[in-house]
Amino acid sequence: MNFNIEDESKDRKNNCLCEVVKCLTKDCTGPTGPRGATGPTGPTGNCTCSCVSRGELVVNGGMEIVIDDKPTGWLFSNPDNITSENSQGRFHSGNWSINITDDSTLSQVINNIEPGCFYELSFFARGEGAQVSLNANVIFITNSGYVLGGNLMVRFQDMTNSNRDFAYYRLITSEAPVGTTEVRIEFIVNANGNQSLDLDDVSLTSL
C-alpha cells in the first residue's frame, strides 16, 4: 500500500485554513456561558436647577390696581401722556388697561432675577389709530452695567387697531448674564398725532 504524505499534509493545511475562516466569520462561537451576577445598584443621582419658575414676576401686570388714574407698580417717562383706560373695547381682560401716547415709556424694574436663566415677556396690545408702533425691551441689570436681553418691535403696519381687538406678543430673552441682579422691562410708544397704544396683561416669567 502506498501513502501520499504530500497530499495528507495539504489536507491538514486546508482543514486548518477552513477553521480559521470559520472563526473570522464568527462561525466558531461556542455556546453562551451562564450570566454573571448583577453588580450593586449605584447611589441615586441628584438634579438641581436654579432656574425653577417663581411664577409671575410683574407687579400689577393686569393694570387693575389704579391710583390717580395710573396703574401702581409702574414707572412713567412722561406721566402726563400715560393714563389708565376702562372704556369698552379698550382693555383685554379685567376692567382696565393702560394708554400710552407718542414718545412715552412705561417701565418696571424687577428683582429676584437669576443669572443663567431665560425669561419670557408677553403682553396684549392694540393701536388706538393706524399709525402706532411699539418697542418692547428686556434689559438685564448687572454688576457691571446694562445688557439687552431681548427686543420686540411692532411696526405701525403690523399693529392691530380694530376696536375690541388686542394682539398677543411674546419674546424669549437671551440667557441672563453672570452678575445679573435685576431686570427692567420697558414699552416705548411712537404714534402720530393724537394716536396712542392700549397695553394690558403684561407678564414676565422664568423658563
Automatic annotation (TrEMBL):
Matches recorded under InterPro entries? Galactose-bd-like_sf
Gene3D superfamilies, alphabetically? Galactose-binding domain-like (2.60.120.260)
Identification of the protein by name: Collagen-like protein
- Record organism: Candidatus Onthousia faecipullorum
